[in-house]
Amino acid sequence: MKTYGILLIGCGHIGMEHLLDIYFRDNVRIVAVVDTDEDRARSAAKRCGSAWGTDYRPFLQDPRVEIVIIATYTDTHLPILKDCLAAGKHVLCEKPIARTYEDGEAFVQAVRDTDKKVLVAHILRHNGSYQKIRELIRGGAIGELRLVRMSQNHHTATKEEWNRHRRLLEDCSPTLDCGVHYYDIIHWITGGNITEVTGMGTTTQDDTVRENHNIVTFRTDCGCSGYYEVGWGESIRTCNLKEFIGTKGRITLNMRLGREYDVEEGDLITVYHSDTGVYESINCHAEYKDMYAQLATLIQMIEEDTDGDPTIEDVWRSFRVAYASAESIATGKTVYL
User: Fold this and answer.
1) Cα–Cα–Cα angle for 30, 112, 196, nearest 5°?
2) What integer pLDDT is reported at residue 258 of this predicted model?
3) Model pLDDT, residue 255
4) Number of folded domains in the chain?
5) Which of 69, 90, 120 is the last residue of a domain?
6) Helix extents (H) in 89-230
7) What is the tally of helices (H) and strands (E) in the chain?
8) Among candidates 337, 254, 270, 292, which has minimal Cα distance to 121?
9) In degrees rounded to 5, what are phi and psi of residue 308?
């Protein structure tokens, strides 16, 4: 088994999620971790016994580094990607790919132009519960999918949490930052395309640079409609609703931590069959953020010369929808894709 040398750039919340799920794997060796915060970089290095620094560029010259994980703020993704590809490294990059449409285009074009492998972290594609839901819907368990209800609100219970999310808001709206995941899920599950979006936004507190709560409705070219709600804030209640409604029933996902009973059984997928009135319960032991599954996908791309899952074209499609959603919120007009 080949061991891959990893450079992690960004040791904040999501960077540590990556690090703590991969550093002990047999085919992974953490060569170095980097963060502009010296204390944070040093602390992360102690976790995995690696080198550390505050500038990633010298580490790109290290031949032991084969894969770079970019876990920094959105506005830095494009320049870091370009440096990594110029140094001949494969890349796993956090979403969204950029804060502007032009930078998004440039990111996608850089991936198209390189012979190195790049995977964008659309983590839900690697989640076992969403994979099962896709299998059920594609298999006709609820007939023809007509309606999707998705809510992903987060209560920032501490000042530290709110400050982290407020920094995310400096780069882009919640519907762009998180929406790329869920618009991608719609494309991935239905096999269709989102063709129009209409959004609105609200500010629930004063110390934010933009609206911290978004609701977007959408339509697809395969007869499915729905809405996506996302908000972060000190007075917003956490809500994690995922419901898929078809002509013969519905599927509801209840994440493990949201279960009242049987938490040890994992996520709960409930299928209601409207023709018989029967409820079917499926326990799914899935990692909500399976960081190693993403890295394993990138390694498979490298070893088998595949395009990965999602492909860069899938990423671009969902980014365009997310960007259109943010545009609709800003203008108050429906955007057609």
Assistant:
1) 105
2) 87
3) 94
4) 2
5) 120
6) 101-113, 128-138, 159-171, 174-177, 179-190
7) 10, 15
8) 292
9) 85, 180
Q: Which run of H or of E encompasses 296? A: helix 291-304
Same domain for 237 and 220? yes
Tokens read off for 268: 């709960």
Looking at residue 179, its amino acid is G
Mean pLDDT in order along the chain per 10 residues (337 residues): 97 97 97 98 96 98 98 98 98 98 98 98 97 98 98 96 95 96 96 97 95 98 97 96 98 93 96 98 94 98 97 98 97 97
Residues 141 and 237 in one domain: yes
Question: Exposed, middle or buried: residue 269 (CB in 10 Å: 0-12, 13-18, 19+)?
Answer: buried
| Closest residue by Cα to residue 92 from 187, 36, 28, 184 | 28
Alpha carbon separation from 183 to 66, 268, 321 (Å, rounded): 31, 22, 7
Q: Can you tell me the distance from the alpha carbon of 302 to that of 114, in angstroms, rounded to the nearest whole number?
A: 13
Residue 94 inside a domain? The answer is yes
The residue assigned the tokens 């063709």 is 195
Is the bond preceding 96 in cis, omega lying within 30 degrees of 0?
yes
DSSP-derived letter for residue 256 is: G
**Amino acid 1: pLDDT:** 87
Domain span including residue 77? 4-120
